[in-house]
Design goal:
With 314 residues, the chain is of the alpha/beta class. Helix 2 links the parallel strand 2 and strand 3 (79-80). It has 2 domains: 10-82 and 237-313, 3-Layer(aba) Sandwich (Rossmann fold), CATH 3.40.50; 85-191, Glutamyl-tRNA Synthetase, Domain 3 (Glutamyl-tRNA Synthetase, domain 3), CATH 3.90.800. The strands form 6 sheets. The chain has a 3-stranded parallel beta sheet, with helices on one face. Strands 4-7-10 form a 3-stranded antiparallel beta sheet. It contains 9 helices and 14 strands.
C-alpha cells in the first residue's frame, strides 16, 4: 500500500454508538491506530451518531471508555456528527445546485414494487429505478406536489468507479442506482456525512472493515461532485463466527464490556486482537504500543478471521 509521510498522514477512528464495542470493532480500530501511530501521523476520533433510533443512550461514553481502556489514544477533541448537521445540509444543497442530487418522494414499498426482478436487489435493498429524476425542482416543490417530505438522491450516471484499495487491491467499484444523501427528515445519510467530515478534518487514510467496500465507489462520486480530495481507503477482512458471518450477538457476547465486567485485563484483549491481526502468537498479552515496532500490513490474513471462540475467558 502507499505510505504517506508522517507530516501528511491523518487517520481516524469513527465508531457509531449503536451499542457496546465488540472484538470485531476493536480489531479494526487497533489496526487503524497502529497504521497511523507506527508512522508518526495524526489520529482523530469522531463519533458517528446520526443513525437515529439505533443510537443507544450512554453508548458514546462507553465507546470512549472502551477505547481508552484498550490503550488507544487520539489527537485533539472528539468530533460528534450530530453537532455538525448544518455542514451536511450545506453540502447537500451544493449537490442539488450542481445537478448531482434531486428530491425523491418514493417510499421503500414503492421502490420494492418497481424492482423488475429479484436479482436487481443489492445488499442495501433494490436498485432505485430513477422514478423521481427530473420530477421536482427542489424539496419545497416536491412537498407541495405530493404532500410528502422528500429525501435527496445522488444522480449516478456511471456504472463503476474503479479504485485501488490499500489492502484489498484493485476494485471494480460497481455502483448500482441513485443513492440517498439526505433523509426525509433533513438529516444526512452516511454516504454524505462521512465524506463531508473526512474532507473537513483532512483525513488522508481511512481504515475500516471490508463490509464497507461497496460504499466506497458511492463516496468517491460524492467527493468528485463536491470538488474534494478523497483519502486512501484500507478495508480489512471481517472478524466472523464459526458460520462465516460477521461477528454478532448470535455468536455470543464478544463485547468489550462483557470481558471488562468479568475481570479480563486490557492486555489480554489486545493480545487476542493482535493474534487475530497476525501480529502476535496466541496467548501473549500486550498493549497497543508494544505492537508498533513490528507492525506490518503483510501480517494480516487476506480473508475473514474467526473470533467467536471466547479464548479470552478460557
Amino acid at each position: 500500500m502507499t505510505v504517506a509521510s508522517s507530516s501528511s498522514l491523518v487517520g481516524r477512528l469513527a465508531p457509531s454508538p449503536t451499542g457496546a464495542l465488540h472484538l470485531g470493532n476493536a480489531r479494526t480500530f487497533l489496526l487503524a491506530w497502529l497504521s497511523v501511530r507506527s508512522r508518526g501521523g495524526t489520529l482523530l476520533l469522531r463519533l458517528e451518531d446520526i443513525d437515529g433510533p439505533r443510537i443507544k443512550a450512554g453508548a458514546a461514553q462507553q465507546t470512549i471508555d472502551d477505547l481508552r481502556w484498550l490503550g488507544l489514544d487520539w489527537d485533539g477533541e472528539v468530533v460528534v456528527q450530530s453537532e455538525r448537521l448544518l455542514r451536511y445540509q450545506a453540502a447537500a444543497a451544493q449537490l442539488v445546485a450542481g445537478g448531482h442530487a434531486y428530491p425523491c418522494v418514493c417510499t421503500r414499498s414503492e421502490i420494492d414494487a418497481a424492482a423488475s426482478a429479484p436479482h436487481e436487489a443489492g445488499d442495501d435493498g433494490p436498485v432505485y429505478p430513477g422514478t423521481c429524476r427530473g420530477r421536482f425542482a427542489d424539496l419545497a416543490v416536491a412537498k407541495v406536489a405530493t404532500g410528502r417530505d422528500a429525501a435527496l438522491r445522488f444522480r449516478v450516471d456511471v456504472d463503476a468507479v474503479p479504485f485501488v484499495d490499500g489492502f484489498a487491491g484493485p476494485q471494480a467499484g460497481k455502483v448500482r442506482g441513485d443513492f440517498v444523501v439526505q433523509k426525509r427528515d433533513g438529516g444526512p445519510a452516511y454516504q454524505l456525512a462521512v465524506v463531508v467530515d473526512d474532507a473537513a478534518q483532512g483525513v488522508t487514510e481511512v481504515v475500516r472493515a471490508a463490509d464497507l467496500l461497496p460504499s466506497t465507489p458511492r463516496q468517491l462520486l460524492v467527493y468528485r461532485a463536491l470538488g474534494l480530495t478523497p483519502p486512501t481507503f484500507v478495508h480489512v477482512p471481517l472478524v466472523v463466527g464459526a458460520d462465516g458471518l460477521r461477528l454478532a450477538k448470535r455468536h455470543g457476547d464478544t463485547s468489550l464490556r462483557h470481558f471488562r465486567e468479568r475481570g479480563v485485563r486490557a492486555e489480554q484483549v489486545v493480545g487476542y486482537l493482535a493474534y487475530l491481526c497476525g501480529l502476535r502468537p496466541r496467548g501473549g498479552p500486550c498493549l497497543p504500543r508494544d505492537l508498533l515496532g513490528g507492525f506490518s500490513w503483510s501480517a494480516l490474513a487476506k480473508g475473514p478471521v474467526r473470533g467467536d471462540d471466547h479464548a479470552l475467558l478460557g
